């Protein structure tokens, strides 16, 4: 069972999805949950089934006091780097909240101060605190839905399945077909050693 961070404060949890991908945006969410929020299955989005992620997405969107989701796209990632893009996505998600948090809790170990609101970075926070876990659910489900849509435009890369992550299949498609407008051009899209020619 995950915990609340601090019942005395209005706390926003924030997390991102897609940081290690070769294609598509990095997506962040910020969530403020009511103190009454309960869930037996809420956890880090990466360890949940698709069915449970979708159930939780609906519950979080219905019951959260406020939430925001934001994509930062490939061109901006290439311009400012993935770490800065991840933090920017979290800041933009926080901007969408219609309630000002008194404190922000962030999954991971890197963040830049947002509007002089106090914050804590928590490694593996999405497995410890409800609002970060809720943000991880919204970030992942919204990003996955986006990748499934652009899969229809470029089905050879199978983004519907790999969501833009560097799977063997995805790298093979890049080698065969080249890159698309959705690929991050500053990322190492192929390993240095390609297939040996026989």
From TrEMBL:
GO terms for cellular component: cytoplasm; ribonuclease H2 complex. Manganese or magnesium. Binds 1 divalent metal ion per monomer in the absence of substrate. May bind a second metal ion after substrate binding. Its cofactor is Mg(2+); Mn(2+). This is Ribonuclease HII. Endonuclease that specifically degrades the RNA of RNA-DNA hybrids. The keyword Nuclease applies. Transmembrane segments: none annotated. One of its GO terms (molecular function) is RNA binding. Its EC number is 3.1.26.4. It catalyses: Endonucleolytic cleavage to 5'-phosphomonoester. It is found in: Cytoplasm. Belongs to the RNase HII family. It is an enzyme of class 3 (hydrolase). A divalent metal cation binds at residues 15-16, 107. The keyword Ribonucleoprotein does not apply. CDD domains: RNase_HII_bacteria_HII_like. Its main location: cytoplasm. One of its GO terms (biological process) is mismatch repair. Residues 9-198 form the RNase H type-2 domain. Keywords: Cytoplasm, Endonuclease, Hydrolase, Manganese, Metal-binding, Nuclease.
